[in-house]
What we know:
Layout: E1 21-25, H1 34-41, E2 51-55, H2 56-62, H3 65-76, E3 80-83, H4 93-100, E4 108-112, H5 126-132, E5 137-140, H6 145-150, E6 158-159, E7 180-183, H7 194-207, E8 211-214, H8 235-241, E9 244-247, H9 260-267, E10 272-275, E11 292-294, H10 299-307, H11 312-326, H12 331-347
Parallel strand pairs: 1-2, 1-3, 3-4, 4-5, 5-6, 7-8, 7-9, 9-10, 10-11
Amino acid sequence: MLVPEVGCFPPSFEPNRSERVLHVALRTPQETQPSLNAALASLCHPFANRGGVIDWQVSEKRGSLVDDLLTAAYELRPTLIFMQLQRETPITREVIQKVRAYVPPECVIVNWDGDQHYHPVDVQRRWFVELGQACDTSLVVNTRHPDEYAAQKVRHPGYLQIGVDDRYKPAPPAPGTPDVVLLAGCYPHIPAYERRREVARQMQELLGARFGVYGGRWTGGKWPSGRPPLTQSQEPPVYAGAKAAISMSICNDLPRYTSDRLFRALASGAVTLVERFPDMEGLGLEHGRNCYTWESAELEAIVGNVVDELYSDVRAEVRTNAVALAAHHTWHARMGELMAIVEAVRATR
Protein backbone atom coordinates (compact mmCIF):
# COMPACT_ATOMS: atom_id res chain seq x y z
CA MET A 1 0.00 0.00 0.00
CA LEU A 2 2.95 2.36 0.41
CA VAL A 3 3.69 2.31 -3.33
CA PRO A 4 0.74 2.17 -5.77
CA GLU A 5 0.60 -0.32 -8.61
CA VAL A 6 1.55 0.81 -12.09
CA GLY A 7 -1.30 2.54 -13.85
CA CYS A 8 -3.39 2.94 -10.68
CA PHE A 9 -4.11 5.88 -8.44
CA PRO A 10 -2.63 5.51 -4.94
CA PRO A 11 -4.92 3.82 -2.41
CA SER A 12 -6.99 6.28 -0.40
CA PHE A 13 -8.36 6.00 3.13
CA GLU A 14 -11.08 8.27 4.48
CA PRO A 15 -9.58 10.04 7.50
CA ASN A 16 -11.39 9.55 10.78
CA ARG A 17 -10.72 13.22 11.60
CA SER A 18 -9.41 12.46 15.05
CA GLU A 19 -5.66 12.89 14.61
CA ARG A 20 -3.50 15.35 16.49
CA VAL A 21 -1.13 16.60 13.82
CA LEU A 22 2.26 18.20 14.24
CA HIS A 23 3.47 19.71 10.97
CA VAL A 24 7.19 20.38 10.61
CA ALA A 25 6.72 22.66 7.63
CA LEU A 26 8.93 23.81 4.78
CA ARG A 27 8.04 27.45 4.14
CA THR A 28 9.52 30.18 2.01
CA PRO A 29 8.66 33.90 1.77
CA GLN A 30 6.93 33.12 -1.53
CA GLU A 31 5.10 29.98 -0.38
CA THR A 32 3.67 29.50 3.10
CA GLN A 33 1.64 26.47 1.98
CA PRO A 34 -1.81 27.43 3.32
CA SER A 35 -3.54 24.61 1.42
CA LEU A 36 -1.24 21.94 2.87
CA ASN A 37 -1.65 23.46 6.34
CA ALA A 38 -5.44 23.42 5.99
CA ALA A 39 -5.46 19.87 4.63
CA LEU A 40 -3.38 18.56 7.54
CA ALA A 41 -5.58 20.46 10.00
CA SER A 42 -8.62 18.78 8.44
CA LEU A 43 -7.36 15.47 9.81
CA CYS A 44 -7.98 16.73 13.33
CA HIS A 45 -11.25 16.49 15.27
CA PRO A 46 -13.49 19.41 14.17
CA PHE A 47 -14.39 20.28 17.77
CA ALA A 48 -10.84 19.98 19.07
CA ASN A 49 -8.76 21.06 16.11
CA ARG A 50 -5.46 20.61 17.88
CA GLY A 51 -2.59 20.93 15.49
CA GLY A 52 0.82 22.51 15.63
CA VAL A 53 3.17 23.93 13.01
CA ILE A 54 6.93 24.39 13.22
CA ASP A 55 8.63 26.34 10.45
CA TRP A 56 11.81 24.30 10.62
CA GLN A 57 13.99 26.69 8.66
CA VAL A 58 13.12 29.56 11.01
CA SER A 59 13.70 27.38 14.08
CA GLU A 60 16.97 26.14 12.61
CA LYS A 61 18.24 29.70 12.14
CA ARG A 62 17.39 30.44 15.77
CA GLY A 63 19.23 27.29 16.85
CA SER A 64 16.08 25.98 18.55
CA LEU A 65 14.80 23.37 16.08
CA VAL A 66 15.36 20.31 18.28
CA ASP A 67 13.96 22.03 21.39
CA ASP A 68 10.94 23.29 19.44
CA LEU A 69 10.22 19.79 18.14
CA LEU A 70 10.54 18.14 21.56
CA THR A 71 8.44 20.83 23.24
CA ALA A 72 5.70 20.51 20.62
CA ALA A 73 5.73 16.71 20.94
CA TYR A 74 5.40 16.98 24.73
CA GLU A 75 2.63 19.59 24.68
CA LEU A 76 0.59 18.28 21.76
CA ARG A 77 1.07 14.51 22.14
CA PRO A 78 0.59 14.17 18.36
CA THR A 79 -0.70 11.01 16.71
CA LEU A 80 0.79 12.11 13.37
CA ILE A 81 4.00 14.04 12.79
CA PHE A 82 4.40 15.18 9.18
CA MET A 83 7.87 16.54 8.46
CA GLN A 84 9.02 18.20 5.22
CA LEU A 85 12.77 17.87 5.57
CA GLN A 86 14.61 18.13 2.25
CA ARG A 87 18.16 18.35 3.54
CA GLU A 88 20.22 17.47 6.59
CA THR A 89 19.08 19.28 9.75
CA PRO A 90 19.64 18.90 13.50
CA ILE A 91 16.70 16.45 13.48
CA THR A 92 18.51 13.11 13.51
CA ARG A 93 17.76 9.49 14.37
CA GLU A 94 18.60 10.23 17.98
CA VAL A 95 16.19 13.17 18.09
CA ILE A 96 13.38 11.02 16.67
CA GLN A 97 13.98 8.50 19.46
CA LYS A 98 13.64 11.29 22.03
CA VAL A 99 10.39 12.42 20.37
CA ARG A 100 8.95 8.93 20.80
CA ALA A 101 9.20 9.27 24.58
CA TYR A 102 6.54 12.03 24.42
CA VAL A 103 4.07 10.71 21.85
CA PRO A 104 1.38 8.01 22.18
CA PRO A 105 2.01 4.52 20.77
CA GLU A 106 -0.21 5.12 17.75
CA CYS A 107 1.83 8.13 16.60
CA VAL A 108 3.23 7.78 13.07
CA ILE A 109 6.26 9.89 12.24
CA VAL A 110 6.46 10.73 8.53
CA ASN A 111 9.21 12.47 6.61
CA TRP A 112 8.14 13.56 3.13
CA ASP A 113 10.54 14.92 0.54
CA GLY A 114 8.33 16.78 -1.89
CA ASP A 115 10.87 17.17 -4.68
CA GLN A 116 13.41 15.11 -6.57
CA HIS A 117 16.98 15.85 -5.52
CA TYR A 118 19.53 13.03 -5.54
CA HIS A 119 19.38 9.27 -5.89
CA PRO A 120 19.16 7.02 -2.82
CA VAL A 121 22.79 5.85 -3.07
CA ASP A 122 24.22 9.37 -3.42
CA VAL A 123 26.24 10.64 -0.48
CA GLN A 124 23.97 13.73 -0.38
CA ARG A 125 21.08 11.43 0.60
CA ARG A 126 22.80 9.70 3.49
CA TRP A 127 20.97 11.94 5.95
CA PHE A 128 17.60 10.88 4.44
CA VAL A 129 18.53 7.22 4.78
CA GLU A 130 19.69 7.57 8.38
CA LEU A 131 16.65 9.61 9.38
CA GLY A 132 14.42 7.11 7.57
CA GLN A 133 15.79 4.30 9.70
CA ALA A 134 14.15 6.00 12.71
CA CYS A 135 10.97 7.49 11.21
CA ASP A 136 7.95 5.27 10.63
CA THR A 137 7.78 6.05 6.93
CA SER A 138 9.80 8.16 4.49
CA LEU A 139 7.94 9.29 1.40
CA VAL A 140 9.26 10.47 -1.96
CA VAL A 141 7.67 11.67 -5.20
CA ASN A 142 8.56 8.81 -7.53
CA THR A 143 7.76 5.10 -7.31
CA ARG A 144 11.21 3.70 -8.16
CA HIS A 145 13.23 4.93 -5.22
CA PRO A 146 11.21 3.42 -2.34
CA ASP A 147 12.57 -0.06 -3.16
CA GLU A 148 16.10 1.34 -3.21
CA TYR A 149 15.56 3.02 0.15
CA ALA A 150 14.15 -0.21 1.56
CA ALA A 151 17.39 -1.94 0.61
CA GLN A 152 19.16 0.61 2.85
CA LYS A 153 16.88 -0.30 5.77
CA VAL A 154 14.68 2.77 5.58
CA ARG A 155 11.47 1.88 7.42
CA HIS A 156 8.36 1.66 5.22
CA PRO A 157 9.52 3.90 2.36
CA GLY A 158 6.71 4.94 0.07
CA TYR A 159 5.26 7.35 -2.46
CA LEU A 160 3.25 10.52 -1.90
CA GLN A 161 3.08 12.98 -4.77
CA ILE A 162 2.90 16.71 -4.20
CA GLY A 163 -0.57 18.26 -4.04
CA VAL A 164 -1.89 21.34 -5.76
CA ASP A 165 -2.96 24.43 -3.89
CA ASP A 166 -6.74 24.80 -4.05
CA ARG A 167 -6.29 28.45 -5.03
CA TYR A 168 -5.44 27.28 -8.57
CA LYS A 169 -8.68 27.53 -10.52
CA PRO A 170 -9.65 28.67 -14.03
CA ALA A 171 -9.51 32.46 -14.27
CA PRO A 172 -10.25 35.15 -16.86
CA PRO A 173 -7.44 35.13 -19.44
CA ALA A 174 -4.60 37.61 -19.11
CA PRO A 175 -4.55 39.99 -22.11
CA GLY A 176 -1.59 39.68 -24.42
CA THR A 177 -0.61 36.17 -23.34
CA PRO A 178 1.48 34.33 -25.96
CA ASP A 179 -0.08 31.32 -27.66
CA VAL A 180 2.35 28.89 -26.00
CA VAL A 181 3.88 29.47 -22.58
CA LEU A 182 6.49 27.83 -20.40
CA LEU A 183 6.26 28.70 -16.71
CA ALA A 184 9.44 27.47 -15.09
CA GLY A 185 12.73 28.48 -13.57
CA CYS A 186 16.01 27.49 -15.20
CA TYR A 187 19.17 27.24 -13.10
CA PRO A 188 22.21 27.74 -15.37
CA HIS A 189 24.62 25.85 -13.08
CA ILE A 190 22.60 22.60 -13.13
CA PRO A 191 23.20 20.50 -16.28
CA ALA A 192 19.75 18.89 -16.11
CA TYR A 193 18.15 22.21 -17.02
CA GLU A 194 19.80 22.22 -20.42
CA ARG A 195 16.86 20.13 -21.71
CA ARG A 196 14.55 22.93 -20.67
CA ARG A 197 16.68 25.55 -22.40
CA GLU A 198 16.76 23.45 -25.57
CA VAL A 199 12.95 23.17 -25.63
CA ALA A 200 12.66 26.93 -25.14
CA ARG A 201 15.05 27.53 -28.02
CA GLN A 202 13.07 25.12 -30.20
CA MET A 203 9.77 26.85 -29.44
CA GLN A 204 11.23 30.30 -29.97
CA GLU A 205 12.48 29.31 -33.41
CA LEU A 206 9.08 27.81 -34.26
CA LEU A 207 6.77 30.48 -32.87
CA GLY A 208 8.76 33.66 -32.33
CA ALA A 209 6.74 36.14 -30.25
CA ARG A 210 3.89 33.62 -30.00
CA PHE A 211 5.98 31.77 -27.41
CA GLY A 212 6.78 33.15 -23.96
CA VAL A 213 8.91 32.04 -21.01
CA TYR A 214 7.94 33.09 -17.48
CA GLY A 215 10.45 32.37 -14.76
CA GLY A 216 13.70 33.20 -13.07
CA ARG A 217 17.34 32.44 -13.84
CA TRP A 218 16.96 32.17 -17.61
CA THR A 219 20.45 33.21 -18.69
CA GLY A 220 22.80 32.37 -21.53
CA GLY A 221 20.29 33.12 -24.26
CA LYS A 222 17.86 35.72 -25.54
CA TRP A 223 14.45 34.66 -24.31
CA PRO A 224 11.10 36.13 -25.43
CA SER A 225 10.51 39.45 -23.65
CA GLY A 226 12.29 38.26 -20.49
CA ARG A 227 9.12 37.74 -18.49
CA PRO A 228 9.67 37.57 -14.72
CA PRO A 229 8.45 34.77 -12.44
CA LEU A 230 4.74 34.89 -11.64
CA THR A 231 3.05 34.85 -8.26
CA GLN A 232 0.48 32.17 -7.60
CA SER A 233 -2.38 34.58 -8.25
CA GLN A 234 -0.86 35.57 -11.60
CA GLU A 235 -0.42 32.06 -12.99
CA PRO A 236 -4.05 30.96 -13.68
CA PRO A 237 -4.84 33.96 -15.93
CA VAL A 238 -1.73 33.23 -18.00
CA TYR A 239 -2.68 29.56 -18.30
CA ALA A 240 -6.18 30.66 -19.35
CA GLY A 241 -4.87 33.14 -21.92
CA ALA A 242 -2.51 30.70 -23.63
CA LYS A 243 -3.57 28.12 -26.16
CA ALA A 244 -1.09 25.67 -24.65
CA ALA A 245 1.35 25.38 -21.75
CA ILE A 246 4.48 23.24 -21.88
CA SER A 247 5.16 21.00 -18.86
CA MET A 248 8.54 19.37 -18.29
CA SER A 249 10.29 18.34 -15.09
CA ILE A 250 13.97 18.27 -14.22
CA CYS A 251 14.01 14.60 -15.28
CA ASN A 252 11.58 12.37 -17.17
CA ASP A 253 12.84 8.87 -16.37
CA LEU A 254 11.41 8.28 -12.89
CA PRO A 255 8.00 6.59 -12.64
CA ARG A 256 5.22 8.94 -11.64
CA TYR A 257 7.55 11.86 -10.91
CA THR A 258 6.51 15.26 -12.20
CA SER A 259 6.83 18.89 -11.25
CA ASP A 260 4.07 20.44 -9.18
CA ARG A 261 3.73 22.94 -12.03
CA LEU A 262 1.91 20.24 -14.00
CA PHE A 263 -0.87 20.12 -11.41
CA ARG A 264 -0.98 23.90 -11.21
CA ALA A 265 -1.46 24.09 -14.98
CA LEU A 266 -4.18 21.41 -14.97
CA ALA A 267 -6.05 23.02 -12.08
CA SER A 268 -5.95 26.35 -13.92
CA GLY A 269 -7.57 24.71 -16.94
CA ALA A 270 -4.54 24.88 -19.22
CA VAL A 271 -4.17 22.82 -22.37
CA THR A 272 -1.03 21.21 -21.04
CA LEU A 273 1.66 19.66 -23.23
CA VAL A 274 3.29 17.11 -20.91
CA GLU A 275 6.68 15.60 -21.59
CA ARG A 276 6.17 11.85 -21.27
CA PHE A 277 7.41 10.09 -18.15
CA PRO A 278 6.97 6.49 -16.93
CA ASP A 279 3.60 5.56 -15.42
CA MET A 280 2.11 9.00 -16.02
CA GLU A 281 -1.14 7.08 -16.50
CA GLY A 282 -1.02 6.36 -12.77
CA LEU A 283 -1.70 10.07 -12.25
CA GLY A 284 -4.70 9.93 -14.57
CA LEU A 285 -3.04 11.68 -17.52
CA GLU A 286 -4.58 10.73 -20.88
CA HIS A 287 -3.25 12.05 -24.18
CA GLY A 288 -5.96 13.91 -26.07
CA ARG A 289 -8.39 13.82 -23.16
CA ASN A 290 -6.96 15.98 -20.36
CA CYS A 291 -3.52 16.81 -21.79
CA TYR A 292 -1.23 16.20 -24.76
CA THR A 293 1.93 14.17 -24.27
CA TRP A 294 5.14 14.56 -26.22
CA GLU A 295 8.70 13.53 -26.70
CA SER A 296 11.26 15.89 -28.20
CA ALA A 297 10.80 14.84 -31.83
CA GLU A 298 6.99 15.25 -31.61
CA LEU A 299 6.73 18.59 -29.87
CA GLU A 300 6.62 20.87 -32.92
CA ALA A 301 3.84 18.88 -34.60
CA ILE A 302 1.75 18.76 -31.41
CA VAL A 303 2.19 22.48 -30.84
CA GLY A 304 1.16 23.18 -34.43
CA ASN A 305 -2.04 21.19 -34.06
CA VAL A 306 -3.01 22.57 -30.66
CA VAL A 307 -2.56 26.24 -31.52
CA ASP A 308 -4.46 25.83 -34.81
CA GLU A 309 -7.85 27.54 -34.52
CA LEU A 310 -9.53 24.43 -35.97
CA TYR A 311 -8.77 22.79 -32.62
CA SER A 312 -10.49 25.41 -30.44
CA ASP A 313 -13.44 23.11 -29.56
CA VAL A 314 -11.05 20.30 -28.69
CA ARG A 315 -9.02 22.68 -26.51
CA ALA A 316 -12.15 23.63 -24.56
CA GLU A 317 -12.91 19.97 -23.81
CA VAL A 318 -9.32 19.28 -22.78
CA ARG A 319 -9.39 22.28 -20.43
CA THR A 320 -12.56 20.99 -18.76
CA ASN A 321 -11.11 17.51 -18.34
CA ALA A 322 -7.85 18.94 -16.99
CA VAL A 323 -9.68 20.75 -14.19
CA ALA A 324 -11.60 17.58 -13.36
CA LEU A 325 -8.36 15.59 -13.14
CA ALA A 326 -6.70 18.22 -10.94
CA ALA A 327 -9.42 17.67 -8.33
CA HIS A 328 -7.80 14.27 -7.68
CA HIS A 329 -4.49 15.99 -6.96
CA THR A 330 -5.37 18.67 -4.43
CA TRP A 331 -3.79 18.64 -0.99
CA HIS A 332 -7.13 17.60 0.49
CA ALA A 333 -7.22 14.62 -1.89
CA ARG A 334 -3.64 13.77 -0.88
CA MET A 335 -4.74 13.47 2.75
CA GLY A 336 -6.69 10.32 1.85
CA GLU A 337 -3.52 8.89 0.31
CA LEU A 338 -1.46 9.93 3.32
CA MET A 339 -3.90 8.28 5.72
CA ALA A 340 -3.81 5.06 3.68
CA ILE A 341 -0.07 5.04 4.29
CA VAL A 342 -0.46 5.92 7.98
CA GLU A 343 -2.99 3.14 8.53
CA ALA A 344 -0.79 0.67 6.66
CA VAL A 345 2.08 1.54 9.00
CA ARG A 346 -0.14 1.20 12.08
CA ALA A 347 -1.31 -2.20 10.86
CA THR A 348 2.27 -3.50 11.05
CA ARG A 349 2.52 -2.80 14.80
